Amino acid sequence: AMIIGLILPLGLGCAGLMLLWVPKDMVGQPLAFAGVLLALLYIFVKTQKNRVYSDTLLALIQRQVFSDKKQNIAGIGRFSEEVAQRVADLMQGTDNLEAGRAYAGLLIEHAPETAAALLQNELQRLPPPIVEYLLQKLASSNLPQWRAAVRNALRHENARVRITAASLIEAQGEDAALLPPMLEHWLQENNPRLQAQAACILLKHPGLLASQAAESALVCLLQGEPGAQICALNAVAELGDAGDPGRRRKQARSLL
Questions:
Q1: Residue 243 and residue 226 in contact, taking contact as beta carbons nearer than 8 Å
Q2: Are 181 and 208 contacting, i.e. CB atoms less than 8 angstroms apart?
Q3: I want to staple 116 with a disulfide (CB 3.0 to 4.6 A). Which of 10, 21, 88, 145 is the partner?
Q4: CA–CA separation, 236 and 244 (whole Å)
């Protein structure tokens, strides 16, 4: 806005004054050559300014990444492509989980497309807690890269990431057809958390079938080790809170 409202009119005014003062014998090739040199000088200065701005912004981000005082960053609007990529590199390069989550939050707020593309391309290489965070926080954007990433996350090696992806797909509803075969497979997994989540989703949606197998899986978990019992109880509590309260509570009590 400043370039359009102030700098551009000033530049046109200066160009007009130069044409008035330039001797007539310079009009033509010498003046055109001088204009080309000035244009190249402008491009050089602009490039240097952008580089200095990017370096300064990155330094500010690195200083404030552990701070609650984000007002200086919040006021800058969207990141440029270069800044977004450098923040993504910082996120991938840090060994500190809290710092990685802070960088991911900045990407989500100031460059959601870059965050979604990074999630899609680096799904298996990013730390699982960062993948979970990006999946959850980008859900409202519903970007194509996010939709592809959440479908791929159903086959992630980390169980928590798979559970998060299944919950998000269930909530979105668009790709619900992907869930039944995947959830039925999870019921056979030797992972109580996966079994409980699969059973919970299947029982919340009778149209997905396999409700009998889901109930049996929850009952087995409730009779198993303490860790399995906790997973099953969490699923039963979620069942009691979802859908029609009376029917869900009755269903949850029958499992107990």
A1: no
A2: no
A3: 145
A4: 14
pLDDT score at 38: 72
Side chain identity, residue 191: N
Backbone angles phi, psi at 15, to 5 degrees: -65, -40
Residue 81, both tokens: 């492509």
> Which pLDDT tens digit goes with each residue over 20-46?
666 666 556 666 676 677 777 777 777
* Helical packing angle, 211-222 and 245-255, nearest 10°: 50
Give whole-number Cα distances, 118 to 87, 92, 113, 247, in Å: 11, 10, 8, 42
What distance in Å separates the CA atoms of residue 77 and residue 54, rounded to the nearest whole number?
A: 14
Cα pseudo-dihedral 72, 74, 79, 84, rounded to 10: 90
Secondary structure letter of residue 4 according to DSSP = I
